[in-house]
Specification:
The chain is of the alpha/beta class. 43% of the residues lie in helices and 15% in strands. The structure holds 2-phosphoglycolic acid (PGA).
Length: 263
């Protein structure tokens, strides 16, 4: 059974003080020994992805809780003269558990392509970390009926040279670009449809067992009022949450919603 996995992607938001206050509130909310938090601890894997500069402190602040910490991006090289880059080994060194690669803002705002995304993913796995690979179509691509070809390409190229055994450390996030930060989430049916399609592609690339084992998050305007419907949709195993992860109250309601819908 795939465990639900809900991760908060803080993007370039918060500053030191508010980030630590959020950590304290999440630790309290998820760690409490009563109420919804008990169900969250046993049924949902929880993570946050702060900006690089706060990673070490956030790791320390969340120590002793079930909340894991990851980075929003990672360098595509091992080490050396790559000004501005942060390596996967450095992420591991400060206690991060995973890195997100191929987020649509990396792809569309910064022009990162499938090959670069794949290199980042490989470096992350080589360093012993887990990775969240994001895929998703733009509005024009959806309207042009290219959703499947786009996400299949992003998945196939993103996972190039990944060994079957390493898939256990890969999570996939389907994030339609038109749904990110727009308040217009994909419907649970739309999300399910693409998740099922992605599982089929993975089955072709590896085998059915690999496809069945893969955790696929949905991302794009997940909020307290739509989380239960989205997390309850077939083949949706969790969520990658942007805006709604910046406030403890809304993120905790999304986590609680994850415990209410049957698997
Ligand atoms: P959003 O972002 O929840 O603010 O739409 C999701 C994401 O980009 O991961």
């Amino acid at each position: 059974m795939r465990k639900r996995f809900v991760a908060g992607n803080w993007k370039m938001n918060l500053e030191r003080r508010s980030a630590l206050a959020l950590c304290a509130a999440l630790k309290d909310g998820v760690g409490a020994k009563s109420g919804a938090s008990v169900a969250v601890q046993s049924t949902v894997r929880v993570a946050v992805a702060p900006p690089f500069v706060y990673l070490a402190e956030v790791v320390r602040a969340l120590e002793g809780s079930v909340i894991s910490v990851g980075a929003q991006d990672v360098g595509d090289r091992v080490s050396g003269a790559f000004t501005g880059e942060v390596s996967a080994a450095m992420l591991k060194d400060v206690g991060a558990h995973f890195a997100i690669v191929g987020h649509s803002e990396r792809r569309h705002v910064y022009g990162e392509g499938d090959v670069l995304t794949n290199q980042k993913l490989l470096r992350t796995l080589e360093a012993g970390l887990e990775v969240i690979l994001c895929v998703g179509e733009t509005l024009a691509e959806r309207q042009g009926k290219q959703t499947e070809s786009v996400v299949a390409r992003q998945l196939t190229k993103g996972l190039a040279s990944v060994a079957r055994a390493d898939l256990a450390r890969v999570t996939l996030a389907y994030e339609p670009v038109w749904a990110i930060g727009t308040g217009q989430n994909a419907t649970p049916e739309q999300a399910s449809q693409v998740h099922q399609y992605l599982r089929g592609v993975l089955s072709g690339l590896y085998d059915e067992g690999a496809a069945e084992g893969l955790t696929i998050q949905y991302g794009g305007s997940v909020a307290a009022n739509n989380a239960a419907a989205i997390l309850g949709a077939p083949d949706v195993d969790g969520a990658l949450v942007g805006g709604a992860s910046l406030k403890a109250e809304t993120f905790l309601s999304i986590l609680a919603a994850g415990t209410l819908v049957p698997r």
